[in-house]
Specification:
Order of helices and strands: HHHHHHHHHHHH
Number of domains: 1
Pfam families: Glycos_transf_4
Cofactor: Mg(2+)
Binding site for Mg(2+): 157, 217
Number of helices: 12
Strand content: under 5%
Subcellular location: Cell membrane; Membrane
Main location: membrane
């Protein structure tokens, strides 16, 4: 199947499968709780159905099974399982928030332990495909991979704060990764990336400009895990800093904000992550989102030509 057709097929299937997800989330009252310390304008979003990421995660699962020979290329089975594992962590977090009817899911350490565990299993599995490597490089590979996976997943999770922000940026990043993988001759990584991009762009129908459905942590963590896993498989981990520049900026804004407040009792931004800073400058949400998409597109284009 051609690249464009694969992308469109994944998008169409994701669109279709997310309708029953929306119905189920509404029927079973899987509603989003909004944290009180967030922007006051977000309080109107409280009660919006969530866990919509189930739709595009299922699409990725089904399409990868169909279009990638996982027996011949088990590295991509590992990426798929990593994606599902992080989706499972997000599902548990979302479920706890819903059942408690407030924005309190898994604790910070519960998330980190689970995320590190899945990332470690993935990294150890990939060690079996490392040939002619020094002992030092092999010892470095696991902690480095864990850092990349956990960091990327949490960065995408932080980015999921405005309608359409993460879905749009993730679509751009995975398309850029598909182009890079194709240039390097990684056929399966190209296929996987296009599937995720197509599945994710369809979610914008439900999430932008006015959200009828949120993806939840089940979606945001899965996207980060898939992105990091694919980058590791094609040996382009550091390229994530460029093509995923928006995610890096979002994560850095939180780190700088927390660090500055703890050290100097001063805040650098009006609110973090970064998208909230611009939102509190009274810039309409849709314009903030589109602005971030444009920045993400620039990062993606630069990354493709590196």
């Amino acid at each position: 199947m051609g690249h464009i057709l694969l992308f469109l097929s994944a998008a169409f299937f994701s669109l279709l499968i997310t309708f029953p997800v929306l119905w189920g989330a509404s029927y079973f009252k899987f509603k989003q709780s909004i944290r009180a310390e967030g922007p006051q304008s977000h309080q109107s979003k409280s009660g919006t159905p969530t866990m919509g990421g189930i739709g595009f995660v299922l699409t990725v699962f089904i399409f990868v099974l169909i279009f990638i020979d996982l027996e011949l290329k088990p590295q991509y089975l590992a990426v798929l399982l990593l994606t599902l594992g992080y989706a499972g962590i997000g599902f548990a977090d979302d479920w706890l928030k819903i059942s408690r009817k407030q924005n309190l899911g898994l604790t910070f350490w519960q998330k980190i332990i689970l995320q590190t565990g899945f990332a470690a299993i993935f990294a150890v599995f990939l060690l079996g495909f490392k040939e002619n490597q020094s002992l030092l490089s092999l010892l470095f590979f696991c902690p480095f991979s864990i850092f990349i996976i956990v960091g990327t997943a949490n960065a995408t999770n932080l980015t999921d704060g405005l309608n359409g922000l993460l879905a749009g940026c993730a679509t751009i990043v995975f398309l850029a990764l598909a182009i890079v993988a194709n240039k390097l001759g990684f056929v399966e990584a190209t296929t996987f990336s296009l599937i995720v991009a197509g599945a994710t762009v369809a979610f914008l129908y439900f999430n932008f400009p006015k959200a009828k459905l949120f993806m939840g942590d089940v979606g945001s963590l899965a996207l980060g895990a898939a992105l990091a896993g694919l980058a590791i498989v094609i040996h382009r981990e550091l390229l994530l800093i460029v093509i995923g520049g928006v995610f890096v900026l979002e994560a850095l804004s939180v780190i700088l904000q927390v660090g500055s407040y703890k050290l100097f009792k001063k805040r650098i931004f009006r609110m973090s992550p970064l998208h909230h800073h611009f939102e509190l400058m009274v810039i309409p949400e849709m314009y903030v989102v589109i602005g971030f998409w444009v920045v993400g597109l620039v990062f993606g284009i630069v990354g493709v030509f590196l």
